[in-house]
Each structure stands twice: as C-alpha cells, then as structure tokens.
C-alpha cells in the first residue's frame, strides 16, 4: 500500500517483553501481538470456555504473512488480513507488516543471543514505548547493547531482554530456509497482556507434571519426560521458563531464561519466586495476596474443566515494577484487604499448541482424558502454597 492508500504500513517487531517460549512473538500494535498459527491453539481460542476468558489473552483474529527479501538480503515480513480478522483492525484488502533485520552476532552468544545496531534498538524503543524509556535493563547475562543519542554520545547503558530477539532470529531463519517468498504463513493475533504496565515484571511458568502432547514422537516424549524429571516440573508441577523483574535500586530489569529455570531445585525455585517479587530494595509483600487470590480463582476454574489437558502451556504472573499512586482511572482489580496498599497484578495462561480437549476442531478424535488436568492443578496448588509461605515469612 502506498501512502494514503487504506491503512498505513505496520512495523512488525520482535516483542520486547517476551521472556520465555520458543515461538517468535511479534508486536502488531500497542495492544496486540502475533505468533505463528498452530491449528490446535486456534481451536482452543475459538471454543474457549467462558470461565477461562479472564485468564487468557483475548483472541483477535488471523493474518496471513509471507517473507520477502530485498536486494541487500534483508528479510521483510508482509501480511494481509485473513479470516477472523476483527473489524477493529480494519477491513483493508492488505496490511503490510514489515521488519528489516540486520543482525550482528553478539560477542557473547552462549544461547545464540543477538545484538542490534544502535539505530535499530533506538527505533525499537521509540516505537514500542512512545514517550517512555521503559527498558532500562541490565541483563543478568550476555549483551552489552548501547544506545547513542543524536550526537553519538552514550548517556547511559541500556539493554533489553534478549529472549524475544533470539526467538525472532530463529524464526526468520526457519522461514527463509523453508519457505519461498510467496508462501503464506498464518499468524494468530492476540491481546498484548502487558500493554497497560509501565515496567512489566513477568514470570513465565511452565505448568504441569507432563509437557509432551498426545501427538509427540517417542523421541520427543522421552526428551520432555527427562526435562520434567530433572527439574521442578516433577516435584512441584511447575518450573520457571523465564523472568524479567524491574529493580528500583538500579532502574534496570533483571532477566533469567529457561535454561536457568531448568536447573533450579525446589528451594531454588522458591528463592527465584522471592526474587521475582523483590524490587532490589525489598520484597513487594503487598503483591502476594492479590496474586494468590487470582491463582485461587484460576484453580477453581481449572478444576471444572473436564477433558482439558494443557500440556506445555505457560502461566504468566505480571505486575508493574514501578509503584504508583492510585488514581480514579487505575482502580485495582482487587479490593484493599487488611489495609494493604492497592496494587495491580495479573495472571494469564498462554501457549495452547498442545492443549487437547473433547470437541476440538483440530483433533476430532483426541486421546480421551477424563476429569480435570491434575498435573496442572498440582502445580497451581504448590505455587499458591509457596506464595502463602512467603507472605507468612517462611
């Protein structure tokens, strides 16, 4: 589309707040992210039980994407609305989603992380966080990315959670090797559940005692069973897949990834949970009760979902890293209790590519599972218990 022809082109960027998973999450607009479509996940969102909607991202439709490469070899993603595209995103015949990638290998690439040139990073910050420089992040590991101002000076060190960039680079490499330029790939459009937070602190938890889907090969099944046995998935029904937590004392985010999470003992898991709720100066104790209340509400819903198995799905716990004064426009989702200071928290289930249930369109004859997902319930119960112990100072 040229200038003034329907909807303007949209810059599709790596989602800078992606802390876990392996699928590339991309920013569509301020309130929407997109990810490659998997039929089982689409089927889940299309038949989502009403009671679960407050605990999942809002499903917003589908877009079709294809890869283009310019004469310099830069990769470009082009997309046009597909079936299910919501009216709010516009009914234009085509929407261009593009992202020019000039990747340079990071000097420290233990997990294949990448670094952008300063101009791309600066643009990403401006586009993703208008009017705010949110991601004053100092990583626990790797990158030393620097932002320069207009005069080429480096006023302060700024870096960002690199996990989303790592996933995005892998995805583009896969697309460029597997698909020719005109091959269409569909993406799901989902609510950006952290868009309302100034400094989103995010904990990504892999839930349940089993991670492999019913359709997993014997080799994949064995691999997932081994990962569960060697991590807190077996002992607690939950393991850490990624985290970013804002540190008020430094003005940076502290980040960890799934490799760190897999190595944790049950005690290490508890300590990391405490670290997630600490701002560098103190434990944010006022967050504990609203998070526990939300987890208990989710637990009540999951117990009633017969036949559902949420294999390999994640649970996000989210809060704002910057304490703020309460205003009429930002009422907390929970009432104040026992004089506790109000705070805003959220709990959301994500990643349903291996979720199975009776009546699924993508799998009309699923492996029969009766009753609720006991592995998921086991993980939720342990998570609640650990947070309650934290609030009691244990």
Automatic annotation (TrEMBL):
Pfam family, one: IPK
Record InterPro entries: IPK, IPK_sf
The enzyme's E.C. designation: 2.7.-.-
Coiled-coil annotated spans: none
Gene3D superfamilies, A to Z: Inositol polyphosphate kinase
GO cellular component, one term: nucleus
Keywords tagged on the record: Kinase, Transferase
GO terms (BP aspect): inositol phosphate biosynthetic process; phosphatidylinositol phosphate biosynthetic process
Family: Belongs to the inositol phosphokinase (IPK) family.
Protein name: Kinase
Species of the source: Daphoenositta chrysoptera
This protein's encoding gene: Ip6k3
């Amino acid at each position: 589309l040229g200038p003034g022809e329907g909807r303007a082109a949209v810059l599709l960027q790596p989602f800078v707040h992606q802390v876990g998973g392996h699928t590339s999450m991309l920013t569509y607009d301020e309130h929407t992210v997109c990810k490659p479509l998997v039929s089982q996940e689409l089927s889940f969102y299309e038949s989502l039980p009403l009671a679960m909607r407050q605990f999942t991202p809002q499903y917003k439709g589908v877009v079709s994407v294809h890869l283009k490469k310019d004469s310099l070899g830069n990769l470009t993603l082009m997309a046009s609305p597909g079936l299910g595209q919501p009216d709010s995103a516009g009914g234009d015949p085509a929407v261009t989603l593009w992202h020019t990638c000039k990747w340079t290998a990071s000097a420290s690439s233990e997990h294949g992380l990448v670094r952008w040139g300063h101009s791309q990073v600066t643009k990403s910050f401006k586009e993703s966080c208008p009017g705010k420089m949110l991601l004053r992040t100092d990583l626990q590991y790797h990158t030393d990315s620097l932002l320069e101002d207009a005069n080429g000076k480096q006023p302060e060190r700024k870096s960002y959670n690199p996990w989303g960039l790592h996933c995005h680079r892998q995805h583009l490499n896969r697309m460029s090797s597997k698909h020719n330029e005109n091959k269409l790939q569909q993406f799901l459009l989902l609510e950006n559940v952290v868009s309302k937070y100034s400094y989103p602190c995010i904990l990504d938890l892999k839930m349940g005692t089993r991670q492999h889907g019913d359709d997993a090969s014997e080799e994949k099944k064995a691999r997932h069973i081994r990962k569960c046995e060697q991590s807190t998935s077996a002992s607690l029904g939950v393991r850490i897949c990624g985290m970013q937590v804002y540190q008020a004392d430094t003005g940076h985010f502290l980040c960890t990834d799934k490799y760190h999470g897999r190595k944790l003992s049950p005690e290490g898991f508890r300590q990391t949970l405490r670290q997630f709720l600490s701002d560098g100066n103190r434990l944010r104790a006022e967050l504990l009760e609203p998070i526990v209340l939300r987890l208990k509400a989710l637990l009540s819903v999951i117990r009633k979902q017969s036949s559902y198995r949420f294999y390999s799905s994640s649970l996000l716990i989210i809060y704002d890293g910057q304490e703020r004064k309460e205003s009429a426009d930002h009422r907390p989702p929970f009432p104040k209790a026992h004089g506790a200071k109000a705070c805003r928290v959220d709990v959301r289930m994500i990643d349903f590519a291996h979720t199975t249930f009776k009546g699924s369109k993508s799998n009309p004859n699923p492996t029969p599972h009766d009753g609720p997902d006991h592995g998921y319930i086991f993980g939720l119960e342990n998570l609640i218990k650990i947070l309650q112990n934290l609030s009691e100072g244990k």
